[in-house]
Amino acid sequence: xxxxxxxxxxxxxxxxxxxxxxxxxxxxxxxxxxxxxxxxxxxxxxxxxxxxxxxxxxxxxxxxxxxxxxxxxxxxxxxxxxxxxxxxxxxxxxxxxxxxxxxxxxxxxxxxxxxxxx
Length: 118
Description:
EC 1.20.4.1, 118 residues, Glutaredoxin, elongated, Arsenate_reductase, 4 helices, Thioredoxin-like_sf, four-stranded mixed beta sheet, Arsenate_reductase-like, alpha+beta, arsenate reductase (glutaredoxin) activity, single chain
């Protein structure tokens, strides 16, 4: 089973979802779609995704968003960045796909195909 943290207004997110659906259908896997702008991800979920991505909070953020500058997040520590993502979902890089054990950022969308390579 896969979960995609998805923004339907984002072309990369739509492309990633299409690739994921195509591959999941071939392997008879289920997909859960979380529209994280409508259903925000909480602090604990962000920490779990960071562990699955094996990255830092800044690597999971959209640093070019106006909210990043407006909230003076440059140079912020991990906890501050996680809190910012929990409070402002728009700051979370998109899309993120997880199989429950590891996660991948779908930029480029083809990154999701690594879940299906043996």
